[in-house]
Design brief:
This is TetR family transcriptional regulator. One of its GO terms (molecular function) is DNA-binding transcription factor activity. Keywords: DNA-binding, Transcription, Transcription regulation. By secondary structure, the chain is mainly α. The chain has helices at residues 9-23, 29-36, 40-46, 50-57, 65-73, 79-106, 121-138, 147-165, 189-206. The protein is 62% helix and 0% strand.
Length: 209
């Protein structure tokens, strides 16, 4: 007897994303399983809760890629260039997740409580970036400033940029493709120019004396 092809986590997430975008968090895991061609039990062998499945499908992992890479940048290289790189990664992350959550909000869909997260969304992003800036200040790579305010300015501006660039929902295509990393050498000029100008403006007030 021929063995059934093994389904990947990505295929499950694509099926879940389609159901959740259509029905919100109330979408059935049974329907997701049917769409993916597996049993409902198979879903919960890979994802411990429906909440975990939801956030993974919406592209909101426990720690986004930009947060993981941020940990390796502290105290190394050119800080201004590091900030440009981080902001580009944050912008890419928001461009993936914000349209999906805007679509759910527009339909009045309720959101589940995040699993194992004390903070979520903007609060979590600001806290992580604040911690990074505070460490750089302690290394005298930035002047003593209010790191939380700087983080709020950066994160808030990047989020607002993504929101302002979104097309009306009727014209927006919600991709199920995996998130792609930013390649700094091949960014659209307008996006790179925006991020570079943002960091340059902030840098005037935070550069080491």
């Amino acid at each position: 007897m021929a063995r059934k092809p093994k389904i990947t986590n990505q295929q499950i997430l694509e099926a879940a994303r389609k159901v959740f975008l259509q029905q919100g968090f109330g979408g059935s895991t049974i329907e997701i399983a049917q769409l993916a061609g597996i049993s409902e039990a198979s879903i919960f062998k890979r994802f411990s809760t429906k909440e975990e499945l939801f956030f993974a499908a919406m592209g909101l992992p426990e720690r986004p890629l930009w947060m993981k890479e941020l940990e390796n940048l502290c105290g190394t290289g050119n800080l201004k260039e590091n900030l440009i790189q981080v902001c580009l990664q944050i912008l890419e992350f928001y461009s993936e997740v914000l349209p999906r959550f805007m679509m759910l909000r527009s339909r009045g869909s309720a959101f589940p409580e995040p699993c194992n997260r004390k903070e979520q969304g903007l609060m979590q992003d600001v806290k992580v970036l604040t911690s990074f800036l505070e460490r750089e200040i302690s290394l005298s790579r930035l002047r003593p400033v209010n790191a939380k305010i700087v983080a709020h300015i950066l994160v808030g501006t990047l989020m607002n940029y993504v929101l302002s660039e979104q097309k009306p929902f009727s014209q927006t295509s919600f991709t199920t493709e995996p998130v792609k990393d930013f390649d700094l050498e091949h960014q659209p000029k307008v996006v790179f120019s925006f991020v570079q100008s943002l960091v340059e403006a902030i840098w005037l007030g935070i550069a080491p004396i």
